[in-house]
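WARN no homologs supplied; continuing
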Amino acid sequence: MLKNYVSLVGRTNVGKSSLFNMLINENSSISTNCSNFTVDSNIACFCTSDNKCFFISDTAGIKEVNNSNLLKKIEKNIFSYINNSNLILFVVDAYDGITFLDIKISKILRRYNKKIFLIVNKSENFNFSNYNLDFYSLGFKDIFFTSCQKNFGIRSLLHDHIVPFFINKNFFVNYNKYIGDFYLLKNRNVIKNCYYDFIKISILGKPNVGKSTFINSILNESRVITDEYPGTTTDSTEICFYYKNNRYIFIDTAGVRRFKNVCSKVENISIKKSIDCIKNSDIVMLTLDSTCEISKQDFFLINNIIFFEKCFFIVINKWDLLSFKKKIKYKNILNIFLKKFIFVDCFFISAKKKQNLFSIFKAVNNINILLKKNYSSSILTRILKKIVNSHKPPLYNKKKIRLKYANLISKKPFRILIHGNRTEGLLFSYKKYLVNSFIKYLNLKGIPLKIFFKKNNNPYV
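OK structure emitted
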């Protein structure tokens, strides 16, 4: 892990995620009034005008009681970021004042011998002339008063104190040198042209299907928190991955349950963020659990992917847990499930045992190659004529429907426009036949296709 880090540390619900979003000038981390929301550490890269960068990490809130296995994992993750940081932003709540847990955290932080800025957040409605002594009692020299709600004190904190600290200590690294590392590398203010060659993949699925375990297995490190209890991942976390000279960004999303089963506000926010990730990604990796039956919720997720016209493939996880007979039975059920989606690739993996993980990169790279391919109007028209000759469209008002030529409208999403006359008379079944035939001829594995029709004004042409 690199050591040019700023880590936001503090107890739960002091505004770390809000401050993180303000510092990077983007709503990357979900901020809510609900405590214990952040579980995984969210990382962003801040770049200067001369391509120098440092990383900002938003960590989970530290709790006083950490008896459960999950809380111990979260705490271990927090302390690993503290250990690898040059600068720590210790965030406290102005309304609550100094609590016993704040004192405990301050004692822990001092052991690491790091530079620490004490951030007194939510300070918009306070006159702190009477409260300065309370905050200085924690023993930190550098104290800053901020308000994420009023955008107060954050810009000066970043530009007058955090950036100069990295300049003076020479803790900057070159952005281009570390562009392929295992981090969320987003272009902040400067580098707009480096981001285009990343392939962005959202990992979508129901809770506890092994999305976070998959991320940890390909990275070969515990980058995101995993637990047997479903719903551990609450926020979407982006991880950059470099493999065989290609750059990928994997987005680990929260598990999506059926909306009627969602009770808490926290889970509702998480699900909406997961669905939003579909829109913002190039490819979606839908993850299924082979030990569970394929459900209506899986159909719901596929329909959402197709609605947003995103490329996708399906990964069936925990394949090692099935016997030979159960594997055959599952494949038969899967074939019935996928009859509607003939263009989708499927991969059988075990994230926990790291079996067949890197096969998914074949699907990702194949989709990427297909999207970069040139599809001229002459090629598409030639294919259209073959399709029509194999099965002509039915008559409309006792007249022939003529489909003249086809051209590509866009690749992301993949859309074809077919010109002809009386196209309004085409039946839904024939339109579906055209879509399936084009997918077959162009070998569009994992790429949903939409066909639009344009009617010629002159019926005699």
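Residues 30-37, 176-196 have pLDDT under 50 and may be disordered.
OK
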